[in-house]
């Protein structure tokens, strides 16, 4: 492999002396420059749909820290909006959507291939980033996995236990599965266009996969992800895919093969030692430092970072957090984590 992009090399299965590193939510409210650009854009959704400013906030953590990958600035809830759901963000609370719980509401959504006019600014953001990123930085596109996106569309907001989605699954399986199918089809089209626009890697976020148990995990987390991966691999065989079924626990075992993903991203609910023995044997893994270390820093941050690098050093690994960095994180702790991974202090 001749590429100098270390993230692509790890995703191709190479064991590197130093793991490449990037961070979920690396463009975000812990950075003063992000807050300034967000204020300039007006609100969060205006920032997502302003291609120049979305590219700018994507580049901010690359300039400040030299991460090995940039993840385009957008949100997993833009797809439901493109499908016709209403979406808004309540400051300090999070997203709100018009709900889909009946056959009529499902029927009123747009077909999966009618999303692109709405999502065009996202493709434009990727085109700008392909031009402007340093040559060693890998550009990541993303979408939410169908179950996670459906949990927001059914409840109309984030929920601690995804109860409304579980209820619809139990009470009206046809609507539930119809919605999952529509999201799956839309996600395939959306991600395919992201690759056309310059995304070099795709990440599928299944933030609430952990609330699916047994057959439900197989049917509603693994199978939709496998269908998305299979279709993308048909259209774009050279684009690696990272799957993140957060909270999968022991279900992480065997997922590279079951989903067909090039990399499985790990949350911090599993230890790196366990994952090295049970998950990394299937291929590249990403993760999994607890985000709270970015708030607390110090010796614990350094020793945990070293422990994770050490545990995964026998195989392909991309260093990351176990979930997104939080707004109360200290930007200096991010530098300390990077310096520790790269062994420069
Ligand atoms: O990682 C990155 O830097 C890229 C951009 C990105 C955002 N959201 C920006 C964002 C990505 C990849 C996402 C994914 C996303 N969005 C997920 C999956 C990953 C995860 O965190 O589990 C989910 C569930 C969402 C939905 C969402 N978006 C919620 C629940 C919230 C509110 C919670 C919060 O942190 O405020 C958002 C808002 C959001 N998405 C912000 C950012 C930077 C904060 C918005 C702001 O600036 O006020």
Number of domains: 1
The secondary-structure element order is: HHHHEHEEHHEHHHEHEHEHEHHEH
Number of strands: 9
Structural class: alpha/beta
Number of helices: 16
Tell me which oligomeric state these chains represent: single chain
Gap from first CA to last CA: 30 Å
- Helix content range: 40-55%
| CA radius of gyration | 19 Å
Q: Report the portion of residues in β strands.
A: 5-15%
| Assigned CATH architecture | Alpha-Beta Barrel
Strand order of the largest sheet: 1-4-5-6-7-8-9
Main beta sheet strand tally, sense and closure: 7 strands, parallel
Bound molecules: coproporphyrinogen III
Q: What do the pLDDT scores average to?
A: 97
Organism: Octadecabacter dasysiphoniae
Subcellular location: Cytoplasm
Pfam family, one: URO-D
Keywords: Cytoplasm, Decarboxylase, Lyase, Porphyrin biosynthesis
Summarize the SSE layout with pairings.
Blueprint: H1 6-11, H2 32-41, H3 44-49, H4 51-65, E1 69-71, H5 78-82, E2 87-90, E3 94-97, H6 103-108, H7 116-132, E4 138-144, H8 146-155, H9 163-171, H10 173-196, E5 201-206, H11 215-235, E6 241-245, H12 255-260, E7 263-265, H13 272-278, E8 284-289, H14 293-296, H15 298-311, E9 317-321, H16 331-341
Parallel strand pairs: 1-4, 4-5, 5-6, 6-7, 7-8, 8-9
Antiparallel strand pairs: 2-3
The structure holds coproporphyrinogen III.
The site of coproporphyrinogen III has 22 residues, from strand 3 and strand 4.
